[in-house]
Amino acid sequence: MQQVKAYGAKDKNADLKEMTIKRRELIDTDVQIDILYCGVCHSDIHAKNNDWGNAKYPIVPGHEIIGKVTEAGAKVSKFKVGDIVGVGCMVDSCQTCSACEDDLEQFCENGMTGTYNGKDRIGGAESDHTFGGYSSSITVNEKFVLSIPKNLDLRAAAPLLCAGITTFSPLNHWKIKKGDKVGVVGLGGLGHMGIKFAAAMGAETIMITTSPGKAEDAKRLGAHGVLISKNAGEMKEHQGTFDFILNTVPVKHDINPYLSLLKRDSTMCMVGAIEPLEPMHGGSLILGRKRVAGSLIGGMKETQEMLNFCGEHNIVCDIEMINMDEINTAFERVQGNDVKYRFVIDMKSLKN
After folding, report:
1. pLDDT tens digit string along 167-193?
2. Cα–Cα 20 to 30 A to 67, which of 82, 232, 261, 337?
3. DSSP secondary structure letters along 29-64
4. Dist CA 236 CA 254 (whole Å)
5. CATH number at residue 57
6. Structure pTM?
């Protein structure tokens, strides 16, 4: 086993602190990666705090990883030493079920292996659960490693591995195109990427927000217009005009007002709130044959397609760089909505 520097928490009430973890020795199908940058996702905070009731300690978060290949196993064919690569939200799956065969490993019927806090299928490390990217290096099966386009800013590309694919996948699945009118609800880490992707796909992109103060930034990111959802007149004006709505709000809220904005046979997709919502009025769906759907990241094939799309359109996240020892303050600021729009850790600050 390899000893690796990391930042993690020993229990839900503890701050993240430097610790040493053990990674498995490289096997034939593995790629060993020196981590250069790691994004900070709100999920990292939920997991560390055991908000979902499934945390395994010690926990080392981080699933928006950019790094350089330092070693490749004998059977690795896609990557070589020196390649710049990414690792997202999962590092394994059963690879035999119908979901995996359809390149939808995130929906693995036997459970995908999360990059951190996931049940380790391979073994050979210190723990029976996985450790994430708040660490100096990681060892991953090559099937779950991604190529990063050379023209992208590597720091700002890191959050593409979660915030990027989480918003790209539903837009791609529902085939958003030029001429469509797309609403993006919520302007945060996910919402700002939803705006960039929808606009790049050619859609008329409208930011839907409760905060008039976000209008200028939304337009800077590519929105063609801003709809203030608290303004009854504006809501009535846009009623029944949207082909698709991407709802990125991360907490419990009332979705009924947004359903009135959809055209007949149109969809609102939820990607933010992993918790009970306010009661939904069935008539809002029945009168118009409308749909409320959900989406979870993307499979490996689609995630690579997303990265390639970003390379073609020069799309990255808006970020603020931090050092590893600033992570606890960063967690507090994320919870206070005090970041535009994603923190990224410079991992050399851990290695020094």
Report:
1. 999 999 999 999 999 999 999 999 999
2. 337
3. TEEEEEEEEEEE-HHHHHHHTTTTS---SSB-----
4. 17
5. 3.90.180.10
6. 0.96
